[in-house]
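Subject: Sanity check before I submit

Could someone independently write out the structure tokens for this chain? I want to compare against mine line by line before I put it in a report. The sequence has 226 residues.
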Amino acid sequence: MSAALSTHQLTKDYGDRPALLPLDLEVPHGQHVALVGHNGSGKTTLLRMAAGLLDSTDGEAYISGHLAGTKKARTALSWLSDNPTFYDDLSLWEHLEYVGRLHGVTDWADKAETLLGRLHLGDRRDDIPTTFSRGLRQKAAISLALVRPFDVMLVDEPFVGLDEAGKTTLLELLDEAAASGATLLVATHELAFVNRVQRLLALRDGALVYDGAPAATDVHALVLPV
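---
Independent answer below. Compare away.
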């Protein structure tokens, strides 16, 4: 069986500096992974290329054996950005309906109700997400990422802007997704998440500098630039 996420000499170079040095990586199905590193280390670049949102300079990324960015890869993948975007003319509920129906979820309304309740967004369901605060936009994006089916979830700094209750709920939702068999790769500085994953990856200046168990290294040192 192909890996949930694999990269082969995946590289990104903006000309003046490499954003990601050639990377060979395999994440098996069902693994719960945290990705750490200082700002500018290459975390977002890696995730965006794996999600098919950014072209590589060289190499390839695959989602469940499908080239990143292809229809099959996008079908298997749920992407949660650190800077979510929304339609200007759709309410939160209409966003949820659109995403649910797009992915063939027959019980999308039940799933949406549950997610809105857990994220304390029930009273904002008819509001336009583009008018929300940073924290509310992040909660809305979380609900959209989870209302649809997925085999792999790529997540970029999901805890930024959330209050403590929101962080706790997100940790629970990510744990539940992992327990259901989904593969999660989450870029974060939130140690409460890092301490509950199976595998830790660390990037520094575009290079992979650690790949192992979180407990076997000093996580704080890995997120500091040299």
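---
OP: Matches mine. For the report I'm noting this point. The chain has a mean pLDDT of 94.
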